[in-house]
Amino acid sequence: RGAYSKLQLERKASKCIKPNCVTSSLGLRLVEKEALGAKDHHERVQALFPKTYGLPRVELEIGTEADVVNAPLRIGVVLSGGQAPGGHNVIAGVFDYAMRCSPDSKVFGFLNGPHGVMNGIFCEIDTEIMAHYRNTGGFDMLGSGRDKIESEAQMASSMAVATEMRLDGLIVIGGDDSNTNAAILAEYFAANGCTTRVCGCPKTIDGDLKNEYIPISFGFDTAAKTFSEEIGNVALDTLASQKYYHFIRLMGRAASNIALECALQTRPNVCLISEEVEAKGMNLLQITNDIADMVVARAAAGKHYGVCMLPEGLIEFIPEFNRLIAEINNVLASGVEPSIDAMTAALTPANRAVFAFLPKTIKLQLLLDRDPHGNVQVAMIETERMLAETVAAELERRRGAGLYMGKFAPQFHSFGYEGRCALPSHFDCSYSYTLGYTAAALVAKGLTALMASIQNVQAPIEEWTIGGVPITMMCHMEQRHGKDKPVIKKALVDLEGAPFKAFAKHRAKWGLTDMYRAPGPIQFYSAGARDTNFTLMYELLG
Ligand code: FBP
Predict the structure, then answer these.
(1) Is 184 among the annotated ligand-binding positions?
(2) d(Cα 16, Cα 403) in Å, to the nearest integer?
(3) Which of 123, 394, 399, 474 is deepest in the core (most CB within 10 A)?
(4) Residue 204 near ligand 1, beta carbon < 6 Å
(5) Closest residue (by CA) to atom 20 of ligand 1?
(6) How many C-beta atoms surround the C-beta of residue 103 within 10 A?
(7) Ligand 1 atom at minimum distance from 252 CA
(8) Assembly ipTM
(9) Is residue 243 marked as binding?
(10) Any idea what DSSP says for residue 69?
(11) What positions does the entry give for diphosphate binding (predicted)?
(12) Contact criterion met (CB below 8 Å) for 36 and 56
């Protein structure tokens, strides 16, 4: 019995579906479009990126034989940040483009994320290695990491590595923070006479790296489908047993994109959306009361079970916690030790009162180290337990007042890591491959500081179009580790957008009835196998 399942073997061997511009035997013609500045704080962003700010967006169209690149390329790739299904196919796209330019091309994979770039730790990727990873999930081919290339010394050593390796291009496969890093590196290289071009590919299951030119980040589709399979199963379990309220926390950092997509897929009784909580200024008491109202109404219909979903970033969007976390960040940045006592003493009275109200586990989780980009590690905060506790207390209060006579038995789930390395869906296989192919083509055309962009994704894969967008166009200034930094602005759930509106239209009836939908596992060979996710389709087609 081999180490691989039959499905794994089949997926590795299968041909990824590619757009016509990728399969065409003609070359790619570069078409320059409008120059794009940053959306917010543009003067401050411009000042930080004098060489690479305001570049034009480009499209790569099917050209003529004269557009074929016939020279060998030397490209380095790095997987950065959290895993996302499709990463290996980005590398496959880079590899195939480079080999198409010349069999003498070289593709190098930096090991364990940006740390490999700074320290020159890499391997050469050949045809055999590449074949082993096509269409597979995970980042195990090279490993990943969350290091940030930030200091002058780190940038200088990255440049020395790129120069010594004679890289034409460095392709950063990462999320918002990693692509910000790519923009910083591109600027540094350009300002210091290094000829290595740096381009990015939008990766993250969180789905928060998107804009009018980047319809979605790769990995979101597969991860959301994987979680939705599990949620659908849990929903049917509770429908049969009628015993439990399942509280399900979903990964996604600040953005509720994953939670919203899973809600559209599975129709739970409740799904909190952080962005709405913030927009309505809802405090913990209001959120608790809303869930308790639903539990009481269901109990009146004889239902003592249900499914409640929440995004992992929720806590940062509840106003009193948002203020608390902001002050904790500043206090930690000022050097106060991360202990409950020291923090309690350092906080202002209003925030101290909120902090005091929290269970010890949540207090400790809020004090945890930030990641290298200064983010609170929301994946470690068990908000679902906190919420179930406050709901249980409210239900007991109502029971005492004779307003509730049901039973409330919560079960807890947190879905995240199990979706990040799943076998990529057809959409993610093709999208990731095309991103890699595009990024390599941008580098080959001498372009830097761009993110690969695939458009027309509402059409069949064969008709997708490709190009590049300046990364600085997505940047604005944000406080990180207590200092103003340029970062790519996260794409949170748009409360005016079609996906949220579709959810808002139906959620009241989903609350009281049991309209659970079980999408089942990702399909590779059935009729719907090429279908993408609800979010993308609502966003692109309304
Ligand atoms: P990226 O932004 O790097 O893609 O991270 C995605 C993510 O899965 C988040 O949803 C989650 O909060 C975080 O990574 C968890 O981080 P870690 O893998 O370091 O525990």
Answers:
(1) no
(2) 58
(3) 474
(4) yes
(5) 379
(6) 9
(7) 10
(8) 0.98
(9) yes
(10) -
(11) 82
(12) yes
**Ligand 1 binding pocket includes 311 (Cβ within 6 Å):** no
Cα–Cα dist 54/170, whole Å: 21
d(CA 366, CA 518): 34
Check whether 516 is labelled as a binding-site residue.
no
- Residue 252 CA to ligand 1 center (angstroms) comes to 7
Q: Where are the alpha helices (DSSP H) in 311-374?
A: 314-317, 319-333, 340-346, 349-357, 360-367
Q: In sequence order, what are the residues at sequence separation of 6 or more whose Cβ sits closer than 8 angstroms to the Cβ of residue 273? A: 256, 259, 260, 311, 493, 495, 500, 503
Which H helix or E strand runs over 230?
A: helix 220-241
The three-point CA angle 412-415-420 to 5° equals: 165
CB 511 less than 6 A from any atom of ligand 1: no
**What is d(CA 438, CA 200) in angstroms, rounded to the nearest whole number?**
10
206 catalytic per annotation: yes
DSSP readout, 457-491? TTS-GGG-EEEEEEGGGGEEEEEETTEEEEEEPP-
Q: Are strands 306-311 and 270-271 parallel, antiparallel or unpaired?
A: parallel
**Three-state DSSP class for 411?**
strand
Question: From CA 499, how far away is CA 267, in angstroms rounded?
Answer: 13
206 lines ligand 1 (CB under 6 A): yes
Distance CA 262, CA 117 (A): 36
In a 10 Å sphere around its CB, with 0-12 CB exposed, 13-18 middle and 19+ buried, how is residue 50 labelled?
A: exposed
Which listed residue (147, 168, 206, 208) is catalytic?
Answer: 206
Q: Is 52 left (phi over 0), alpha (psi -120 to 50) or beta?
A: alpha
* Total-model pTM: 0.94
CB 232 within 8 A of CB 517: yes
Strand partners, 455: 465
CA neighbor of 384 nearest in space, from 206, 243, 250? 250
Cα angle 211, 217, 223 (rounded to 5 degrees) comes to: 135
What residues have CB less than 8 Å from 408, skipping those under 6 apart? 245, 295, 304, 391, 392, 395
